Amino acid sequence: MPSSPCCQRVVVPIIDWQSRTFSRPVILLICFGAIALFPSVLIPSSPFMWIAGMTFGYGYGFMIITTAMSIGMSLPFCIGSAFHSRIHRWLEKWPKKAAFVRLAGEGDWFHQFRAVALLRISPFPYIVFNYASVATNVKYCPYIVGSMAGTIHETLLAIYSGKLVQSLAAATSQGSFLSVDQIIYNGIGFAVAAVSTAAITIYAKKALQKLQAEDELC
């Protein structure tokens, strides 16, 4: 399976430059800092999750990403608390989305945990929810626990994507082709990841709608 021109001209040089320029501890600090701080200024940190996956694999990569993400979700929650009324007015411009967000602040601890986890799994923008959540009455503990539970699949998918890009880049840099075993392994892995993500997202949307219907009846 030949590599794409994009992989050869863009991805491989970037990976080579990264490996030549930075040591593993420096890459750790860069990735951790970006994943922890970028969400506070509304900048996506997904590329750094891929790099963490490429460099540290599933074990250490997962620990690095989840720890940094916990900070990245906590900082906007704390910062947004100072602008509670302003965020509340902003949400009123989108009543349908606001109705789902407000589910996170209703009910007991488990209800809030479940609502936050489902919102994290659903297509609702990750960075936006970090701030939007403070417009509800959600407590920090169910917010952060639900957020961590709801982003596990996203973290694993980011690590897998990083490892997949790394394997394609390695084959390209060596001027070789992926073996049949590698093609089958990567193809099955990508299919499983895509189907799992779609299934989880559909489940989350239906569960949120059911949760909203239950709250309207109460």
Automatic annotation (TrEMBL):
This protein's record includes keyword Membrane: yes
Keyword line: Membrane, Transmembrane, Transmembrane helix
Classification via Pfam families: VTT_dom
Taxonomy, superkingdom: Eukaryota
Residues annotated as transmembrane: 26-52, 58-83, 183-204
Entry-linked InterPro entries: VTT_dom (IPR032816)
PANTHER family, sorted: EXPRESSED PROTEIN, SNARE ASSOCIATED GOLGI PROTEIN FAMILY
Protein name in the entry: VTT domain-containing protein
Source organism of the structure: Triticum aestivum
Record lineage: Eukaryota, Viridiplantae, Streptophyta, Embryophyta, Tracheophyta
